[in-house]
Design goal:
Radius of gyration of chain A: 21 Å
Structural class of chain A: mainly alpha
Number of strands of chain A: 0
Largest sheet of chain A: none
Shape of chain A: flat
Distance between the termini of chain A: 53 Å
Helix content of chain A: over 70%
Shape of chain B: globular
Oligomer: heterodimer
Order of helices and strands of chain A: HHHHHHHH
Helix content of chain B: over 70%
Number of helices of chain B: 10
Number of strands of chain B: 0
Largest interface: A-B, 43 and 44 residues
Number of helices of chain A: 8
Structural class of chain B: mainly alpha
Radius of gyration of chain B: 23 Å
Strand content of chain B: under 5%
C-alpha cells in the first residue's frame, strides 16, 4: 500500500509547487477577495436602495451568480472576458487576456455576489438610530455610509468575510478546468508527468487542509476577541 | 483600408442540429446532462442527509470523545477543496485498496458517477451535520430532559423527540444546502461525469457556439433553482413549527 510511496517526488517538486503554484493561488485569493469585497459592498448598497432601478439590477445580478455553479462561470468568463476587453477598449478584435487576468475577473465578479450578501447583513445589523443620528448631524448619504455605517458593518462581519475568504481560497482550485498552474494545477501536472497521482494528490490535500484549518482557527480566535470587546 | 470588426456570430438554431454523436440534437445532449446533474445531486443528497444526521447527532451527545470525533470529521471534509476530494476518491482510493478491489473499482461502469455521488455526499454531509447540530442545540434543554425522564433511551429521545423538531427548524438552511449540492455536482466534470456543465462545454467545443451553449446551461440551472426554491417554500410552510418566528441558523456557502 504505502510500500512504494515516493516521498522524493514531493520533495523534488516543492519549489515548483510553491513558487509557481501556491504564489498564483494566494495572489488570486488576495486580489479577488479585495476586489470582491469592494464590488460586493457597492452591490449591497445598491440592493438596499429603495429606488427600484438601482436595487433590482443588483438583486438580479446577485441571484444569478448564486444560482449557477462556479465552474460554469469560469467557462463563461474565460470566453467572455476577451469580448468585454474589446468592448471597453474599442479594439477591432477580442483582446487576448492571460490566464491570471481571466481568473481574477471571474472570481472577483462571482465572489462579489457572496460578499454582497454578507455586507448587506452587516449593514442591516446596524441600529437605525446610528443613521438617524448621522443625518441629524447634517451628514450626507456618502458621509453616513463612509464614516458611520460601513466601518461598523465591516467590523461586525469581519469573521464571516474571512470565512468566505477561506472558501474562496479553496474555490480557486477550480481554475484547474482551464489547465492553469495554480497549486492544484502544479500538483496535477507533476502527478501526471511522473505517474505519481497518489503522492501528489494526498500532499495537495494535506497542504489545503493545513492552511484552511490554521486560517479557520485564527478566525475563531478573532471572533472571540471581537466578542469580548463588544 | 477600413478596419474590419471581428464579431461573434450568433446561431440560436444550433440547439436543433444533430450533435456529432449522430443521434441526439445539441438540446437533447444538454437535457441528458441535466438528468445526470439531478441524479448525482439526489444521490449525494441522500448520502449527505444520512451521514450528516449521524455526525450531527454524535456532536450533540454527552459522550466527549464521540463529539470530538464528529468535530474532526467536519474539519476534515470542510478544509479540503471539493475538487481535491473528488480526485482523492477517484484517483487515489483505488490505489490504496487491495489490488483486486482497486481494479474492480476502476473498471466499474459509470465509475465517475458513483465517485461523484460519494465524494459530494461526504463533502455535503459535513455541512449538513453543522445544520443538524445547530438545530438540536437550538431546542430547549427541557425537551431532552423530559424525554429521558419519561423513560426513553437516548437513541429514542433523538429519534422521537429531538430530531423531528430539529429537522423542522433547519429546513430553510437545508434547502440552500440542497441547492449547493446541485451546483457543486458540476465539479464532477473534472473526473469525466457528463453532467450539464460538461455537456455545455462539449457543445462549445464541437459547435463553436460558446455563448449559446453556456446561456442554455445557465437558464437550465436557474429553472432548477427556482423550482427547488418554490417547492421547498411550500414544504417549509407546511412543516413550520407553530409559535416560532422562523429564525434559523444560516451559513454563507455555495
Amino acid at each position: 500500500m504505502f510500500a512504494d510511496f515516493d516521498f522524493d517526488v514531493i520533495v523534488r517538486s516543492l519549489p515548483y509547487l510553491f513558487y509557481d503554484g501556491m504564489t498564483f493561488t494566494l495572489m488570486l485569493t488576495a486580489l479577488a477577495t479585495t476586489g470582491g469585497i469592494v464590488f460586493g459592498t457597492i452591490l449591497a448598497l445598491m440592493r438596499l436602495s429603495s429606488f427600484g432601478p438601482i436595487s433590482l439590477p443588483a438583486a438580479g445580478y446577485v441571484n444569478l451568480m448564486r444560482s449557477v455553479p462556479l465552474v460554469l462561470m469560469i467557462f463563461w468568463f474565460y470566453f467572455l472576458v476577451p469580448y468585454i476587453g474589446q468592448w471597453v477598449t474599442g479594439a477591432s478584435r477580442p483582446i487576448q487576456v492571460g490566464a491570471f487576468v481571466s481568473s481574477l475577473v471571474t472570481f472577483t465578479l462571482f465572489e462579489a455576489a457572496y460578499f454582497c450578501e454578507i455586507m448587506r447583513a452587516g449593514i442591516q445589523s446596524i441600529p437605525h438610530g446610528q443613521v438617524a443620528a448621522a443625518q441629524a448631524l447634517g451628514m450626507t448619504y456618502a458621509q453616513t455610509m463612509g464614516y458611520i455605517v460601513l466601518p461598523q458593518a465591516f467590523r461586525n462581519m469581519l469573521p464571516v468575510l474571512l470565512t468566505q475568504t477561506i472558501i474562496l481560497f479553496q474555490d480557486t482550485s477550480l481554475v484547474y478546468v482551464l489547465s492553469i498552474t495554480d497549486f492544484l494545477g502544479a500538483a496535477s501536472k507533476v502527478a501526471q508527468r511522473d505517474g505519481r497521482l497518489v503522492e501528489m494528490y494526498l500532499f495537495a490535500a494535506l497542504v489545503y487542509f493545513v492552511m484552511s484549518f490554521a486560517a479557520s482557527l485564527l478566525v475563531r480566535r478573532l471572533q472571540s476577541r471581537i466578542a469580548i470587546i463588544r | 483600408m477600413p478596419e474590419k470588426r471581428v464579431n461573434y456570430h450568433w446561431n440560436w438554431g444550433i440547439f436543433f442540429q444533430t450533435s456529432p454523436d449522430g443521434v441526439h440534437t445539441y438540446l437533447e445532449t444538454l437535457l441528458m446532462g441535466t438528468g445526470w446533474t439531478l441524479l448525482t445531486a439526489l444521490g449525494a443528497w441522500a448520502l449527505a442527509l444520512v451521514l450528516g444526521t449521524l455526525v450531527g447527532v454524535a456532536r450533540t451527545t454527552p459522550y466527549f470523545w464521540l463529539a470530538r470525533l464528529g468535530d474532526a470529521y467536519v474539519e476534515l471534509f470542510r478544509d479540503i477543496p471539493l475538487l481535491v476530494q473528488m480526485f482523492l476518491w477517484y484517483f487515489v482510493l483505488p490505489e490504496l485498496l487491495p489490488v483486486e478491489l482497486g481494479d474492480w473499482l476502476k473498471q466499474l461502469p459509470d465509475a465517475s458517477f458513483y465517485t461523484a455521488v460519494v465524494a459530494l455526499g461526504f463533502y455535503t454531509s459535513a455541512r449538513v451535520s453543522e445544520q443538524v447540530r445547530a438545530g438540536i442545540s437550538s431546542l430547549a434543554r427541557g425537551q431532552r430532559f423530559a424525554a429521558l425522564a419519561l423513560g426513553l433511551t437516548l437513541p429514542q429521545a433523538y429519534l422521537y423527540v429531538l430530531l423531528p423538531m430539529a429537522y423542522r427548524i433547519i429546513l430553510p438552511p437545508l434547502t440552500s444546502e440542497f441547492l449547493n449540492v446541485i451546483k457543486n455536482s458540476a465539479v464532477a466534470l473534472t473526473i469525466g461525469l457528463m453532467e450539464l456543465t460538461a455537456r455545455a462545454r462539449a457543445m462549445q467545443e464541437l459547435s463553436f457556439q460558446v455563448f449559446e451553449a453556456f446561456t442554455a446551461a445557465t437558464i437550465i440551472y436557474l429553472v432548477i433553482n427556482i423550482a427547488v426554491t418554490f417547492g421547498m417554500r411550500w414544504v417549509e410552510r407546511r412543516s413550520a413549527v407553530p409559535g416560532l418566528i422562523g429564525a434559523t441558523p444560516q451559513l454563507a456557502t455555495h
